[in-house]
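Work Package 3 (structural annotation) set out to generate three-dimensional models for the target panel prioritized at the project kickoff. During this period the team completed the workflow that converts sequence records into discrete structure tokens, so that structures can be stored uniformly alongside our sequence database. As a representative example, we reproduce one entry of 541 residues exactly as it appears in the project archive.
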Amino acid sequence: MNTNTKQPLIIAIAQLNLTVGDIDGNTDKIIAAAHHAKNYFQADLIVYPELTICGYPPEDLVYRHDFLAANNAALNRIKQEVTDIDLIVGHLHKNADELYNAASYIHQGQQLAIYYKQELPNYGVFDEKRYYQRGHQPCIIDIKGHRLALTICEDLWLPHVAKQAKTAGADIIITINASPYHSEKSDERQYTISKRVEENSLPIIYVANVGGQDDLIYDGGSFAIDNNSTIKVQAPYFEEAIIPVQIDVNHQPIQGSIAPTPTRYEEIYKALVTGLRDYVNKNGFRGVVLGVSGGIDSALVLAIAVDALGADRVHAALLPSRYTAAMSIDDGIALCQNLQVKYSTISIEPTFEAFKTSLAQEFSGLKADTTEENLQARCRASLLMAISNKKGAMLLSTGNKSEIAVGYCTLYGDMAGGYALIKDIFKTDVYALSLYRNSVNPVIPQRIIDRPPTAELAPDQTDQDTLPPYPVLDAILHGYLELDESVDDLIQRGYDKTTIERVIHMINRNEYKRRQAAPGPKISRRAFARERRYPITCGKW
């Protein structure tokens, strides 16, 4: 296979949906993909994503000796079972007491080269310096007269590793990746990789993973780009794929399949579908249950759930109270019927009255306030959790990022659930995503979209009784949470100082709630939990 004579080369991109810790399942996929690439494309080489064997990010699993031993056993199995095609596969490698994020080149069952990731990201969702040692050396492999440099993800977000590969005599750079999604991330990747191409006049093959892993989503979109920064092959987004890339004798990728790039809200919607589908399936849940209120948040979550899992794995519960408008019930039923979802209607009045009776002596002489509103939300949570337990269906919470940011949600009430599907989606984007979903097939009743949002926990209540208008609120939240803008920065952008300070106060005093929120998919540049780690007790900040 290795020769100095230049020959055409077929490299298969293996864009796989991997699961952290499912070493046997991941290895099965690796082997099956290799056989597919050889049998269908006559590929010479197949390239897999970062940490293919164990999945990304393995987090503190890497501290377990048995976990590392399983990684090594899987690598040996791959070498034994795949001998008719070369592989570049990502894996953990421990050398004495030093652990590396590595990629190996395997030829005819022999591990001929190993590369250690040099740039270890330690920001946002990444903690790689907690676990791994840095590599320092380039790794060049020779296949059919082509000299391929191995790199891993962050290595190409900075210039020097690509320059190092060029200096070492590379003709092509191969980069294997596990790059978590956020909105418009694909544009950033392609821009960054294009910069490395321009700097070094080398084509690059970018191999990504795809799928959901806890709160992270991987969008795929692997590609091959020539030394003129023209994308010649583009894998689909949010789908597994094995794509051949033909390399000519001048080391350039030849034009191949180009998958379409989704629009902004199509992309976000597909990301949410992917995150939910994989969280449910990879964790072994039979299906999901959620409360449908007749409002837009639960309507969007229900639509996504059906698209992710199918209507037969989704159960909706309408839980009206004395404050629930007839139109809310009608719209909720119409939504369920449009999506062909089974639903039940359970009044919370008997439960609410029972709680009030139990608390009557404790509350004697005290005026009704938000306690009674929160109690209704907790009645609903108790009923939904009971359905979840009895039917083995995970409860979805339906709160959006705007509400969770300012604490406009009830701890142990509407925050209850195993997965918070839209916790990183601002309210204004909830509307945009609902309009996008209806453009595909109008399933969300228009009145749900048009109606002023309300929690329906008190007479004639609307969200705007408590919060600034959502376009204003979301703009302040975006600036403060995702861009680290100060009060002065936001004032200069035209927002009222009193409103800004009020919003920031609500954000800060509700950190304790967010610490107890269910996980949910990262969509924005800075989501709560992994990326925004604030103390609960922090003075005025």
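The chain has a mean pLDDT of 94.
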